Amino acid sequence: MKSVAGGFEVQWIDVHAHFMIPHTEDELKRSATARCERCFLAPELYQWTADAAIAHMDANGIAMQMLSNIPKSLKALQRSNEHGASIVARYPSRFGLLLALPTDDADACLTEIGRTNELKADGYAATCCYNDVYLSDPRLEPVWEELQRREATVFVHPDAYAEPSMGRPTALLEVAFETTRTVVDMLYAGIFRRYPKIKFVIAHCGAALPALAGRLLLLGTESWVPNPQGITKAEMKAQLAALYLDTAATGSANSLAPALAMTTADHLIYGSDCGVLCSSEATMQENLQSLREFPGLTKREIDHIGRAALKLFPSIARRLQPVCEAVE
User: Fold this and answer.
1) What is d(CA 272, CA 294) in angstroms, rounded to the nearest whole number?
2) What does the alpha-carbon distance between residue 94 and residue 50 come to, in Å, rounded to a whole number?
3) Is the pTM of this model over 0.90?
4) In a domain, 97, yes or no
5) Which domain holds residue 129?
6) Sheet harboring 12-18: ordered strands across?
7) What SUPFAM superfamilies does this protein map onto (predicted)?
8) CATH number where 241 lies
């Protein structure tokens, strides 16, 4: 198998990549204005294209991207899932689909999960807090039951377009705290205890969770902390270690070292955050280079990070075969 610069194999899979449905120029202008109003100072019009995503992959030794997009209305979400399926149908060896789930409505979620085979989805994507409903909400129990039955892989991503905090866009810092709050509440709600067959991939290397895991393990089961499910310290440690963490915008030692204190190298997965305006080609390449040069991991462990999605999304392995043959 041929290699890219630095000796790393070309067959990496990017678990954290976004897409969008085509928009008119007026829609793009409205989106740009809304971003700027939320302190996200990106006034340019942005339209995702498969060609641009493939060009990025080819330039960086990536075989496939797992695409996700989670609009905030049910109609738009369903339309987006259908468009994502059409992209994968056109480029089956370059893209996979993470079916977006409308987690403010359990019945709508179950309906969308029921379209998995029809849309040939490879896994699922959920927002930490979707229309003011957190993933820890007890109304979602039927959804977790169904995903447990399917032994599903679920990609968990924060809302990067919420209201700004202290004059800075949510995508810079607040995404990390929303993710952390949500995962901690899922832990206390007993979701990871009841549904161990669901494989959760947490965006941005688990956000602030790895850095706070020590504090959580030290204090989280003390008598003064509400803990209605009686989650033990041993359970906390095991359940945090069982999470999978992607490397989107978090490929440096600042993020990887705490992650490796919380879990193990085989639970890290390559992610780029490609396909959104908060990621430029320069920042994605810098992040990837930092990951590939991180001294806390062996070359074998780093290459495993690049290919870890094959285990979590087994349906993509057969579609990748033509790409594998092309580089042998």
Assistant:
1) 16
2) 9
3) yes
4) yes
5) 17-320
6) 12-18, 62-68, 95-100, 123-127, 153-157, 199-202, 244-246, 268-269
7) Metallo-dependent hydrolases
8) 3.20.20.140
d(CA 160, CA 38): 10
Alpha helices in 104-227 (DSSP H): 106-113, 116-119, 141-149, 174-188, 191-194, 209-219
Cα–Cα distance between 102 and 258 in angstroms, integer?
A: 31
Long-range CB contacts for residues 21-26, cutoff 8 Å, separation at least 24: 21/69, 21/79, 21/80, 21/83, 22/47, 23/47
Size of the chain, expressed as the number of residues it contains: 328
In a domain, 6, yes or no: no
* Number of domains composing the chain: 1
Cβ proximity of 278 and 225 under 8 Å: no
Q: How far apart are CA 152 and CA 199, in angstroms?
A: 6
Say if residues 316 and 122 touch (Cβ distance below 8 Å). yes
Cα distance between residue 255 and residue 260, in whole Å: 9
Candidates 83, 108, 93, 114; CA nearest to 18 is 83
Q: What is the pLDDT of residues 154-208, one digit of tens each?
A: 999 999 888 888 989 888 899 999 999 999 999 999 999 999 999 999 999 999 9
3-state secondary structure of 277: coil
Q: Hunting for tokens 């979602």 — which residue is that?
A: 140
Identify any residues that bridge with 14 across adjacent strands, giving them in sequence order: 65
∠ Cα 130 214 293 (to 5°): 85
Pairing of strands 244-246, 199-202: parallel
- The residue behind tokens 């009841």 is 194
Q: Is residue 287 part of a domain?
A: yes
- Taking the CA atoms of residue 237, residue 240, residue 243 and residue 247 in that order, the dihedral angle to the nearest 10 degrees is -120
